[in-house]
Hints:
Elements: E1 48-57, E2 63-72, E3 77-82, H1 88-95, E4 103-111, E5 114-115, H2 121-127, E6 132-135, H3 149-161, H4 165-178, H5 183-187, H6 195-208, E7 213-217, H7 225-238, E8 243-247, H8 251-257, E9 260-265, E10 268-274, H9 275-280, H10 285-295, H11 299-308
Parallel strand pairs: 3-8, 3-9, 6-7, 7-8
Antiparallel strand pairs: 1-2, 1-4, 4-5, 9-10
Amino acid sequence: MQPCPQPPETTTPPAQGEPLRAPREKFSSSPPSSCPGGGKAPDDAPLLEARGLGVRVRASGETLVSDVSLTLRRGRCLGVVGESGSGKTLICRALLGLLPPSLAAGGEALFQGCDMLTASPEEARRRRGAGLGLLLQHPMTAFDPLRTIEAHFLESLRARRGLAPEEARARARAGLADMGLDDRALRAYPHQLSGGMLQRCMIALTLSLEPAVVVADEPTTALDARHQFALVRCLARLRRERALLVVSHDLAVMQALADDVLVLHKGRPVESGPAAEVLSAPRHAVARRLLESRRALSREFLRLRETQS
Length: 309
């Protein structure tokens, strides 16, 4: 691993095509971490870690997320649940260094020891994709409408994995096949596919890069119960050698994947612990109401899971 340079005090302009990123603000007195140099981390070392992570609006100072701490190791899955607007997506974007410039992040967001909140735009970009993978909520905005799905795969696999076109094309076909799609999807433009099909294309593209950590923000939103089940099986295979952070409203997805669960309310953690405990006997009133309201929506997924297990 190459060393991650310390950022200057002033904001580094983003490279062309790179989204603007908010400067980091301190929410605590802890100094920013230095990114480690090369060398392989121990197998039990955290791949992803947040310490006192917070997000606030720069103009007004309004706090949107505060005091979020989490640790994610290889072979583990952390589920994050909460009502709409509780800060789940903001946490995902902060962990990848992708907050908009109107928001400021505090605390630390460490990927393999490198703070994504203080890394330069170039270093953060290098660590995303093949290192940190992101599954977005809204697939319609994740693709360039002027390029085919195949072009997205070829560019990403060449840039991140150094694959030749034929090898990249073969990996793209295999990834799409795992999602129940064939070569017609590979040749299609985004507008020619449904939202659910685009969601599966995005999942296949992310997983084809073999990231060390996958941050999945509502990955099953646009999928029916059958394709949700296929996706969960794919993510379950992935987590054997990698780490997953899954944001979902779906109780069945959490039951199938999560080792630990973090419950958010109005941007703050209200409960955390082993998934079996939190999902069966939550202690906090917010967690109880949230889980009770989701059980009815998860029945079809659970039926398929019981039928095919």
